Each structure stands twice: as C-alpha cells, then as structure tokens.
Amino acid sequence: MFKLRNSSSPATGEDPEGSDILNYFESYLAVASTVPSMLCLVANFLLVNRVAVHIRVLASLTVILAIFMVITALVKVDTSSWTRGFFAVTIVCMVILSGASTVFSSSIYGMTGSFPMRNSQALISGGAMGGTVSAVASLVDLAASSDVRNSALAFFLTATVFLVLCMGLYLLLSRLEYARYYMRPVLAAHVFSGEEELPQDSLSAPSVASRFIDSHTPPLRPILKKTASLGFCVTYVFFITSLIYPAICTNIESLNKGSGSLWTTKFFIPLTTFLLYNFADLCGRQLTAWIQVPGPNSKALPGFVLLRTCLIPLFVLCNYQPRVHLKTVVFQSDVYPALLSSLLGLSNGYLSTLALLYGPKIVPRELAEATGVVMSFYVCLGLTLGSACSTLLVHLI
C-alpha cells in the first residue's frame, strides 16, 4: 500500500485516480485473484488427461517463483513517480500468481486423491500450518521491525526460498517407492477403494468409469452428481468463512482501545483475528486425522455446515467499527471476538477438511484426480461468493 502513494505530489493536489487506487486496492486485488482462479480451475480440469500432473505442478511452481522474484526485486524500487504503472504491474502479477497457484494447489490435491486419506489430510493441514506460521511471523515483525520495506523484503525472500525448497522436495517425491505406487497409471477396469473404512460406491459400476478413462476430458456430469452434497458443504463452509474473515473480523476493535495498551490497539486484531483463526483452523484440520464423523453420506454433515450461519450475527454483534445502521454492541467483552474467531477457524478446518477428504474417495480411482480438481473448484466458488457478499454485509452494519 505504501508504494502506491505518490510522495512527489503535493498533498493539496492529490490525484483523484491515485486516491481511488488506494481506497479500493483490496477490492481490485480480490478481483485479480478470484477471477483467474476460477478460469484456471476450469482449464486445469480440462488438462487432467492431456498434461501430466508433474508437468502442471512444476510449471506452476516455476511461474510462481518467477513472479515472486519480480515482486522481491520491486520492494526496494522507488515507485513514487509511477504509481499507476506500479499498480498495473501489481495487478498483472497477482493475476498470474493467482492462476498459477490455483493450478498448483488443485493439481497437488487431485494427485493426492489417489493416495490414502491420511496423505490428503496432511496436505490440507499443511495449508493451515502455512497460515499459522504467517500469522506468527506477522506478529513478530509487528513487534520487532520499524521499516516496512525491510519487512516486505524479508517476507518475499522467505517465500522465494520456500518455493525453491518446495520444487526440490517435489522432484524427490517420484524417487519414493511409496509415492510411485500410488502415482502409477491406473487400469481402466480398476476401481480404487480408498480407505477401507469408507464405504465405496463407484459411479454405477467400474465400466462407467472405464468408458471415460481414454477420453481427453474427464466426465464432469457424473463427478458433479456424485459429489453434489460434499460440494455444497465445501462451498458453504468457505462462503461463510470468507463472508466473515477477514472483512468483519479485522474491523472488530477492542472495547478497551482507549486505554492505549499495545494489546488492545496494535496487537488486538493480529492476535484475535489472524493468529487465533489460523491456529484454530489448523487444529480443526488436524482433528480429521483421528476423528472422521459424520461420514460422507450422512445428513448431519450438511446440517453442521448450515449451522455455521449463526456465526454471522454473532460477529456483527461484537464491537465492529464503524457502525452506521446497527448501533448496538451486544457483546461487551474482548473475550467474545477471540472465542468466535476460534470457533470460526475450528469449524472451518474440521468440516471443510472432512468434505474435501471424502470427495476423491467416493469415486473410482481413475477419476480421483479430476474429482480433486472439482473439489478445489468448490473451494474457490465459496471463497469468491463469500468475498463478494462481504462487501455488501459491511455496508449493512
């Protein structure tokens, strides 16, 4: 944000277009990240049987690494004289980064659909671990750093190092006998049963899947039909989550903000919103390694998912600021937003992970990768709808 301010312009003659960029930067960024994600998910689904998964993974990682190197190089560049150009570069980088990240994540998740459930669970938990580490790093940076440029440089350099490490580890994956066994080509007549404890029900019979195994495009209709209930659960979980987090959460202020304490001002939102949510999300995802109830065909799963709707008014009744239409703050304690953020993260992690784990396991193994990509589409759909509706919600409070 600080690099989008034209420091060379006089304060009295501020460029209206520059102000628009600053005021709505997050909105532009959201559009630049969500729209390419949806398009790339569709493209990735069409490429499942056309381009090998390792090519898609390595190509997307290479693109992500290149973009991060460009962004890292721009951290120390003075952009005050070309803010519009820098804004355009930022948006283009976000579009490419979002698309490549989507291809990478959906390809990896689709690939692990052929692995035992514990491997898919570990992959999903890893995403939450990344969020938790980022939240902790942000808190440390907030407490220790005084130069925003050095902080940004440190974050981007760290991300670049981890991307290189990720590429190296993926290249080592094919050397593991365990991984090669589950990544082997699938015979048309073989139906993967997944975890033994899960009741497997192929689309109708092995022959149904075998009709499509040689097709360049996976059969979308039977996958959608088979995963309809789980897809709804995934979409609605992430819809509610992105409706509340971060749009509502980050505007809830401490009731003791006037005390001037660092814990109620500088660290309140990073602690109660980012750290607690991400840690609870990690705990919820990790719980699925030991507890997997309700099952994939249970009506209780959609019920618990719908129950999360109650979190919306609960967050609104906290000390959200500014308030224009709803003046009353019901929860007169800073404990409530902390508890609600934890509940939001825990339920998001547990319920979404269950649905994502079940998806590729209720179809034949030869359709597991394509089903994984479809489940990723449900995630993206929920996030997109929630982000769009959150803009409306904040104007109603």
UniProtKB/TrEMBL annotation:
Compartment(s): Membrane
Transmembrane segments: 28-48, 55-75, 87-110, 122-140, 152-173, 228-248, 260-279, 300-317, 337-358, 370-394
UniProt keywords, alphabetically: Membrane, Transmembrane, Transmembrane helix, Transport
GO cellular component annotations of the record: Golgi apparatus; membrane
MF-aspect GO terms: nucleoside transmembrane transporter activity
Membrane-related topology note: Multi-pass membrane protein
The family this protein is said to belong to: Belongs to the SLC29A/ENT transporter (TC 2.A.57) family.
UniProt-listed PANTHER family: EQUILIBRATIVE NUCLEOSIDE TRANSPORTER (PTHR10332), EQUILIBRATIVE NUCLEOSIDE TRANSPORTER 3 (PTHR10332:SF17)
Protein name per Swiss-Prot or TrEMBL: Solute carrier family 29 member 3
